# Entry
Amino acid sequence: MDCARPAEDWSAGYVTDVAYMPGFYHHQTPGFMALACLLNGFEPPPLDGITYCDLGCGPGFGATLMAAADPAGTYVGVDFNPAHIAQGRRLIARAGLTNVRLIEASFADLAGSTAAALDLPRFDVIALHGVYSWVDETLKRAIVRFIDERLSPGGMAYLGYNCYPGWTNAMPLQRLLREVAARQAGDSAHRFQTAYTVARALHEARAQGLLDKTVFEALDKELEGGNENYLVHEYLNAHWRPLFFADVTADMAAAKLAYAGSADLLTNFSQLQMTPEQRALVDGLPDRVLRQQAGDYCTGRGFRRDVFLRGAVRLGEAAQHDRLRQIRFVNPRVDGGQSLKVTTPVGTAELELRLYGPLVAWLREEVMSLGALLDRVAAEGVTDRSPVEVAGMLAGAGLAVPVYDDPSPMVVERVRRFNRVVADLPLGQGEVKHSTALASALGRTGVFATLFDSLAYAALVDGADETPEAMADAAWRRLRTRGEALRHEGEPLLGEAANRAALIENFTPMLQQTVPMWRRLGVL
# Structure
């Protein structure tokens, strides 16, 4: 993540002594961004041979994963923290990738002649996750200037950012944590813990400005999940400010960008976001920006994943439906993970079983275009379904992912090499935590992977027989060689027998469910 670099303090109020966590967010992939455009009737850019820039990339894990799955694309990550860039470059070198590079630079460094000196291309996609609500006004202007100069006509920009009104109740706590932490000694993690102890004590003493228990429950959940580094960056950054959608849209207009839609795909369907009474009021407002802003008030949204287009071209309904029918999908779920329920701001909705049940089952067996799916289900008596609704529900609910042409053996092998490097990174240290993502050659996206997934993947790629026992033997040898062990309730498991038993217990269902999914998606 980025900030300015005055001579006396290059961090300029941003946390630099605690590294930001590597992460992968499928919303930032070109396929999901393009789908968001099509669902809202806009023409996305072509996705083959794409040029992609991740601003504030942290360790660059997302850009590197996408580059591994897309050898024809060019990927660039920019971050001002040299520790992030060094960490990411180690991963790139180990994976042997040549179509991704990470650049140490402040956003203020990227305009004009400096960008030319860095030999930056014009980009089809520029993405920022979290960054825009974490920097001061000077750097916001630098970001907009960079997008204006470097985003190609027809290109997409992704902005994921904290927004109002969802953060309203947390603002007093955020300011208190930052003020208390600023007066403490030690590193940022220690200062955060001290500040949070003070804040929680005030909350328990019924301080009137800190009565909202849901805010503390959310932080407690993050701490229990081992996400302390995230909280340090989220709450101790001097320039952190949630934003209003209308203000972000006005900023992007200065770079000739127009709002296309949300990469959080279900958000594009107002019937899932608002009550009928709310929708009637919001739909009566005079323009799209105001309707989006009012919708945020109805849902209490605290994070947006917006896609903008530079030179937005509207598609007619027939062209929109034709484009959507051509998209190919595959089911990314493991067997038994096919719930048709989706959680929305207005409650839980259940997708129509006689429509989505067969679609999900067919996509587990083969890759199919949306048109072929709709034609097949129509032959069974389910007709008159909008391609917009079906594509949005399938992908938005995580029941399908858009995919590209079948990958060549070279691409599959390239992805396997990258995934093997990821699986071999130290457990819970440095490059990855106990969960990460593996690249999919078919979807040019990532698949969430737990600690046991990483251990199983490494064992299989290294040639272990596909039995829980053989995979457990390989995984235990790896753990023992590295001086590591599995943990249960925070404590290490002692001895070979306990570790092998835990590995076998987890690998048994994985061979039936996860491994077939990996092969379906070109992960393995």
Notes: The first helix runs from residue 30 to 39. Residues 160 and 304 are 6 Å apart (CA to CA). The chain has four domains: 26-165+242-269+301-310, 172-225, 324-403, 409-521. The longest strand covers residues 151-162.
